[in-house]
Amino acid sequence: MNESLTLHPDGRTSLRMRRRLPHPPEKVWRAITEPSHLAAWFPAEVTFDGDRIGYGFGPDGRVTHREPPRLFAHTWGEDHLRWELEPDEGGGTLLTLTHTFSDRYGAASFAAGWHTCLIALLARLDGRSPAPGPPETGRLHEDYVHILGLDAATCDGGTVRVERQLVRPAGHVWRHLDGDLAAVGEPPPAPFTVPAVPAGPVTRAEPGRLLQYGTPGGSVRWELGEGTGHGARLVLTCTGDPATLPAWRSRAAALAAELAAEG
């Protein structure tokens, strides 16, 4: 596997991606450090002013390491990007990208984005145009959820918790779940339930954001918040019955797959 996650003691996460490129390190170095080349594949418009980097939107960054043609590292807001180049067999380059950030569950979004960028980088190095048409980012995102182990559920003190980055905005997810049919005092719409957990009446409903209902042993709460990229972050909790963990994990996975499969 060419992608992995490392969780650091301070709570930050590093995503590492490795690619073999059939081009020498000197050529790859120019492609990852010169704005005219970066414009063909990097996800933002890059400008340099000494060690300061502008990205065209959001916070600026600064260069932390520059050792041509071996190591280029820089910040982007609170994130840190490290590009390592090693000579590879046949005159090529082994490129290792390490992206360090604070949002572990956003790692699949980052990985899908960088995967697409690295394909465009290779096209630039080859002297050809990237393949036409938008990438299937939804399916790619879900592949990385599984590759990086971001599809787990936890149980702490009898509370089951599933956190999942989704590929559609919160309003879209809410409508997909028939959330507009939810009403306090009434049964929750079926997509918010699983057969293993008898659903009581809705106790709280905030359109596009939150739905909560009672169960015989506790409650179920669906929250849709701001996530990484363009999609919502789902936090699903069920109190009172740890045995429901597999059911809620499967329900979140099914929802994510449904959203990713949409055109």
UniProtKB/TrEMBL annotation:
Question: Taking every annotated instance into account, which residue ranges of this chain make up the domain Activator of Hsp90 ATPase homologue 1/2-like C-terminal?
Answer: 23-123
Which CDD domains does this chain map to? SRPBCC_CalC_Aha1-like_6 (cd08899)
Which InterPro entries does the annotation name? Answer: ASHA1/2-like_C, START-like_dom_sf
Read off the Pfam families from this record: AHSA1
Q: What Gene3D superfamilies has UniProt attached to this entry?
A: 3.30.530.20
Which protein family is it in? Belongs to the AHA1 family.
Name used for this protein in its record: Uncharacterized conserved protein YndB, AHSA1/START domain
Organism whose genome encodes this protein? Nonomuraea wenchangensis
